[in-house]
Amino acid sequence: MRSTLFALAAASLFATAAHAAPAQYAIDPTHTFATFEIDHFGASTNRARFDKKQGAVEFDKAAKTGKVEVTLDMTSVNSGTAAFDKHLKSKDIFNTDQYPVSKFVSDKFVFDGDKLKEVTGQLTLNGQTHPITIKANKFTCYESPMLKREVCGGDFEATIDRTQWGVNYGVDWGFAKNVRLVLQLEAVKQ
């Protein structure tokens, strides 16, 4: 009887260890970049980035599950041209006086075997929230020799129809509706 109880206790302990809690990560703003690209009449591509961002990731490698929340300070948009930045912040486009932040929240990581394929979630922009799927072009975790902690990160992208979020400026003139979002993200284990 004692050996049976011992075996059950050991099995229970092993099962608990195998299902460890997800790890918590804080986004490293020095290795995280959020940019967008939009076609300009077929002649060129307008690009800009958001200089201020923050967020957190929860990731369980064994279960292949996770959560992510990334917040962008829309007032930090930076195209490299002050006049264009001012227009991007205006009511015509991001309306940063009324909606100073944008947020992506997800609780679904999709894997193909051991490879992260995509992250699905909700994007809030201009006061509206709609689902998006962000494709993972690459993703890995590594032990940072500088931080002496685990870092997970990758390169992600999605294409959205901006009019879903009420960003309609220039559509009547032939400006593209589709915007390519590119996110390079690294997060440090806490």
UniProtKB/TrEMBL annotation:
Organism this protein belongs to: Comamonas terrigena
Domain Lipid/polyisoprenoid-binding YceI-like: start-end pairs: 24-188
Source organism, top-level taxon: Bacteria
Keywords: Signal
Signal peptide bounds: 1-20
InterPro entries: Lipid/polyisoprenoid-bd_YceI, TTHA0802/YceI-like_sf
TM segment ranges: none
UniProt KW Oxidoreductase keyword: no
Protein name (database record): Polyisoprenoid-binding protein
Keyword Signal assigned: yes
